[in-house]
Amino acid sequence: MNTANFLGIPASIFPEQEILVFEDVRLTYGAALARVRRLAAALAALGVGRGDPVAALDTNSHRYVETYYATATLGAVFVPLNYRAKIPELRHMLATARVRVVVVGARYRSALASLLPELPDVRHVVAFDTAPNGGSTIEDLIAGADAERQETEIDESDTTILMYTSGTTALPKGVLLTHHDFTTYVCGTVELADGTPRGTALVCVPLYHIAGATAVMTTLFAGRTLVLMRQFDAATWLRLVERERVTHAFLVPTMVKQLLDAPELGTRDLSSLQSLAYGGAAMPLSVVRRAIETFPPTVGFVNAFGQTETTSTLTILGPEDHRLTGSEAEVEAKLRRLTSIGRPLPDVELKVVDDSGTELPPGAVGEIVVRTPRVMKGYAGDAGASGVDDDGWLHTRDMGWIDDAGYAFLAGRKDDMIIRGGENIAPAEIEATLQLHPAVDEAAVVGLADVEWGQRVAAAVALRPGAHATAEELIEFCRTRLASFKKPDVVRFFSCLPKNPLGKILRRDIRAALTADTRGDR
Length: 522
Known about the structure:
Blueprint: H1 5-13, E1 18-22, E2 25-28, H2 29-45, E3 53-57, H3 62-73, E4 77-80, H4 87-97, E5 101-104, H5 109-115, E6 124-127, H6 138-144, E7 159-164, E8 174-178, H7 179-189, E9 200-203, H8 210-222, E10 225-228, H9 234-244, E11 248-251, H10 253-261, E12 275-278, H11 285-294, E13 300-307, E14 312-317, H12 319-322, H13 328-337, E15 343-344, E16 349-353, E17 366-371, E18 378-379, E19 394-402, E20 408-413, E21 418-420, E22 423-425, H14 427-434, E23 440-450, E24 454-463, H15 471-479, E25 490-493, H16 507-517
Parallel strand pairs: 1-10, 3-4, 3-5, 5-6, 9-10, 9-11, 11-12, 12-13, 24-25
Antiparallel strand pairs: 1-2, 7-8, 8-18, 13-14, 14-15, 16-17, 17-19, 19-20, 21-22, 23-24
């Protein structure tokens, strides 16, 4: 099925239903579909056809969503670009994807213009909003189209989105996701709209991220009103939840913390919220506990863990796991599991293996491998092997373990594992221990090169506002709770830890800072 049908099918049944809200724009299914099909006709007139890459470089908007569905209508390939990417990263993404048309927001026009002489494949630049020197805008294309273009017949193995990974350790990789991948995810997650109220979903994560893309698709297909935020802002998010009676939302951990710290939190009516999912990065235990205590008790929290390469979610930790009720033993077990990523979805097989591929027993740390019908087609260009073996298992490069009840826990990326004197050390275990200290807000642990031990354990720590702790105190705190070889050798304090826009800690930046800072310690 062409993913354009996620909009086209419900729009043909319920054309008058309001389905998309962005700032002062409110669109029905019928109006949105008409705009999409006219935009598709206009893009076709520019020479865009099946398999041609069309890139988008801007923050969230209704026009951004329309551009995706118009691209899918033609059987072309949508390339959502990270608007926070640096120039070398943008150059890499545009060149690797061999983009033919770029749709760009005014804020990013100059960055794109500086790259165009190096990008011979780019034939047209279209503006999302205003265009200088008589250039075309999305609204110009829609208004000037002479017809509405129907969905192109595609093969389910055709790529519909080329989505780049966050690139926290290297240049981003272009993940090829097919119509089949998204159809499997969407149809396995929600039911087709039936005209009954399905609630309202607030999407504030960027649409260049897999969580944003799948949220749009599932929301429109299910008949749930989609409310888009251009970019996340805590006060605006709270206001929109109240005004639009939002029932469903997805946040990354940094957003949750900003909401909890927002002065407006106690003044807004959040009683409509039913499901608050979070993911994209590790959630500190202190933050999720505070969220559970602060938000209305009717809110069901969901931890969703996934990868771009698997078309979003692999495992979930559901609402019941977030309800800290029951006996003392039950509450203690739930607290432990709040640090897990939950259990696999029905269409996901998950196991933990050693370096030889042998499955490990519960509690043993190894690499997490998964098998699901929505694993990516591969990587664009020369990005290396896909990580999928002959039996269809994707090697995630996430280290972790599974407990006796089937809950999966992360222990850090495979490349982040620290080997000290022949002992394997998972940074996540030390980070979780540091975060138990009342003065610690956040912690990140990396390995630094060491002549004697191979690597030594170094921790970057951000303290809570007004709190105080010394490096020696935190090292001793870990020593009494961990095996002695796991305690940090070095602790350095940061005002805040460097992260990407989705809240993932940039370990390469921390490692570089700690390496420079500790050269005199040896």
